[in-house]
User: Fold these one by one.
Assistant:
Number 1:
Amino acid sequence: MCLNAQNQSLEMAIDKEYMMQIKEEHLIATQNRKIIKELYDISYIYHAAIKEISTKLEILNNEFQSIHEQNPIHNLKNRVKTPKSTVDKLIRKGFEVNLESARQKLDDIAGIRIICPYIEDIYTVKNMLEVQDDIEVVRITDYIKNPKPNGYRSLHLIIKVPVFFSDHKEFVKVEVQIRTIAMDFWASLEHQLRYKAKSTQVPQATSAALKECADTIAQTDIRMQDIHNHVIQ
Ligand code: GTP
Ligand code: MG
């Protein structure tokens, strides 16, 4: 083959590969558009699950206040994961990118964060949730007894709650994170800093400093609990 013909066939091969890449990207974009629309359409289910648990928690908190004159819950935050973050997470975790897979594989499309004044309140809230006979606790991860290597502390529960619709009942998974005000202070700032650092690696010295802060905060949480127990005796 002459040099010209060789160049031409190379160009054609590159063109073909380029076209295939474009087609593939287009296909992915179309599929993603489909699942993003489907996720938007079902987001009301997750909002409903959050509403049910929030109402339950409010009732339990009021009952506790009335009996013990103290609130185990300082405040609640909640969110439904955006369809885009949901798709990003499916891709990141190597799961199939479709609605079924999102609903089955992801535990945190609906999330509630319960912020408590003291460490013991966290377990009070956990116990109150566990004894509700319409809530199924799927998994508990105790990052307070076993903090993450970076110092992160919280109690995580994956629960299933029944949501009632006009013609059926559905059990919906919700991720519940329970932590003290102090743990939340650390986790919020650590998250922001990690996000700001953007590059995947936070410098070693920064990680070590953050870990030290987490441990100091944990000691303070224990002291505050002791002071509280002493005062209410
Ligand atoms: P993913 O849900 O895929 O992230 O992993 P997982 O199922 O192992 O969940 P894990 O319990 O580790 O974390 C779930 C959530 O807890 C995260 O989305 C965060 O909100 C929070 N979290 C976990 N680890 C950290 C951490 O090191 N720092 C902060 N700020 N938040 C964390
Ligand atoms: Mg999770």
Note: The chain is about 60% helix and 20% strand.
Number 2:
Amino acid sequence: LLLEGRLRRAIDEGHLVLHYQPQFDLGSRRLVGFEALLRWQPPGEPMISPADFIPLAEDSGLIVPIGEWVLRTACAQNLAWQRQGFSPVRMAVNISPRQFRQSSFIETVDQVLRQSGLDSGWLELEITESCAMENVEATIESLAHLKKRGIHLAIDDFGTGFSSLNYLKRFPISKLKIDRSFVRDINHDPNDAAIAASVIALGRSMNLEVVAEGVETEDQVAFLCSEGCRLGQGFLMGRPLPVDQAEKYLQAAS
Ligand code: G
Ligand code: G
Ligand code: MN
Ligand code: NA
């Protein structure tokens, strides 16, 4: 509860920041977009990881105003980059289950897009596989609304949520993100290699983009490319970065 009070203040006092992790085409190493990742920076103290406060924000409901701030900030940043003359890239934003299930969620997204002026085609929303599977019919309906607006939709942490493939084909999504737990030992653990290869094949057969998360070595890139995975994200190619450092990637790509 002490932490909840501090988090509440952090929102008001502007101590939440976004970092941006680049996403690449693995073949050409071309920048294709960024994922916005939330950080809590209390002045004079070490940064607090979202892993340590998102669950609390989710339980307390604070995730709703925080999530709206993230969406607003990420869209505004992406438009600012376009106006600075950088080649446009896609911006991915993580949406938490509670946020996604809010009856006002679509309205919020509409409002943020309208107010920011960002074209919806440059926005991608990530929901986790387990969130998507919580209430499949409601998920399909919400995703369909978002897709109609031209927003790209990705299933995050794919492989951890026991999707029924029958449902997966009904989700109007355009991307699967292979969870980094399968990528880590891809060159050494035959089970992980088989799982990753299956997800890549599944995604390709459904005409979805597939992104490998947590790419840390060239050996992983080689395996992923040999299996036909086109996109990757990870410390090898770029960490989550503050705005000024993310701009170096845009500069190199423009
Ligand atoms: O950036 P990092 O790997 O520390 O993130 C830890 C977890 O927090 C990840 O699961 C990530 O998806 C989640 N996360 C990061 N930023 C956001 C955000 O803006 N909203 C939500 N809902 N989750 C986020
Ligand atoms: O669940 P989600 O995919 O949104 O989580 C993204 C999180 O993964 C971020 O917090 C980010 O810091 C972390 N991350 C990104 N790339 C790597 C990587 O190459 N290795 C590891 N261990 N973590 C990573
Ligand atoms: Mn994500
Ligand atoms: Na993930």
Note: The pocket of manganese (II) ion (ligand 3) is lined by residues 35, 94, 126, 156 (CB under 6 Å).
